[in-house]
Design a protein that fits this description.
Layout: H1 3-6, H2 8-19, H3 54-62, H4 69-79, E1 82-85, E2 88-91, E3 99-101, H5 104-116, H6 125-134, E4 137-138, H7 142-147
Parallel strand pairs: 3-4
Antiparallel strand pairs: 1-2, 2-3
Length: 148
């Protein structure tokens, strides 16, 4: 028996599957609504704190800690690396001068300026992050944002 004859059943099954009609040829019904289905719309606004530096500022300025014990301990440990100069938060670095902490909106603007604008180089993520830090700027996810 040749290999072509062995495939006969498989070929017949494939042809049957591809040539058959749809299993459920039922019609699709469309209902056009002339009036709203609900009377009133309630919108609850939720304020989300996206500023990563606010807990640090609260702790450094007002000695305010989170209620959870492990979060408070982590914040106290993290706050050692930060200081306030004037009204701005700065991060202490070992081999760099003080790094000014940016909000996420300011960070995006800084990435755009370093990547295309003032510095004018099209760098990869790691080098772009290093250049942003050399400009004296910091936020916690600087490398991830630069790579994205």
């Amino acid at each position: 028996m040749s290999t072509r004859e062995e495939n006969q059943w498989a070929d017949s099954l494939a042809k049957l599957a591809s040539s058959s009609l749809p299993i459920n040829p039922s019609p699709i019904y469309v209902d056009i609504l002339t009036a709203p289905s609900i009377d009133e719309i309630f919108v609850n606004q939720i304020q989300i704190n996206l500023d990563w530096s606010q807990p640090l500022l609260d702790y450094i300025l007002d000695n305010k800690l989170p209620e959870h014990k492990t979060e408070a301990r982590a914040l106290m440990f993290k706050a050692r690396n930060y200081c306030i100069v004037g009204s701005s938060l700065y991060r202490r670095a070992f081999s760099e001068p003080l790094l000014r902490c940016l909000s996420l909106e300011e960070a995006l603007q800084a990435i755009i300026e370093v990547y295309t604008g003032i510095c004018g180089e099209h760098l990869g993520g790691k080098n772009l992050a290093l250049k942003v830090i050399k400009q004296g700027l910091y936020w916690p996810i600087v490398r991830k944002d630069c790579e994205d």
